[in-house]
Amino acid sequence: MLTLDQVKSKSAKRLEGLLPAVHAAAVKLIERTYARGVPIIITQGLRTIEYQNELFAQGRTKPGPIVTNARGGKSFHNYGVAIDFALLLPDGRTCSWDMTRDGNGNKLKDWMEVVDEAKKLGFEWGGDWPHFKDNPHLQMTFGLTINDYAAGKRPAAPAKEDECEMKAADANLIIKRFLQPDWADAKKKGDAAGMQEANRLANVLREASGQPKQ
Ligand SMILES: [Zn+2]
């Protein structure tokens, strides 16, 4: 099984340059989905305007499929307030965009488990858009439009990191629903390492939500 550090390291580069509040929320998203048994990878974060223009040209004036409808300066990615994710498969190398996958076997679609956690952290999901659905896309725009950002406006009081803090009740719910059953399963099988790992993850969540370790 991939460790949380391994999963985090896969996305570290893509998190560079994000607005601090968005960065903090993205890290928490990686932690929380990991704790649910759904490791993810952030595949896109900040994009420069030049890079956005190159992407826009793809499928138009350059070969390749169309991947964006936004010109440089017209994507929230250009302002460090958007990320794209994919599922990270157990080999730690392969990404999946399969929205029906249920890798943790809890009868919920992994993709929507990620979306759920993202919304709790304050992200808006591109899959909710009525026209151009963008299922891997998450953004946190602080009430500003893309034209506001393009005109140089920025969030007046960037959301504080602690607004993204995990609440103790959320952490305890995840522990109860996912980690305690994992621990009990491991105990039944006499799998000491599994028990230890479930304990360790529970403590990661307890710490993230300001509770003492157990
Ligand atoms: Zn995106």
From TrEMBL:
It comes from the Bacteria. Residues 70-140 form the Peptidase M15C domain. Pfam families: Peptidase_M15_4. InterPro entries: DD-CPase-like (IPR052179), Peptidase_M15C (IPR039561), Zn_M74/Hedgehog-like (IPR009045). PANTHER family: D-ALANYL-D-ALANINE CARBOXYPEPTIDASE, PEPTIDOGLYCAN L-ALANYL-D-GLUTAMATE ENDOPEPTIDASE CWLK. This is Peptidase M15C domain-containing protein. It comes from Paenibacillus plantiphilus.
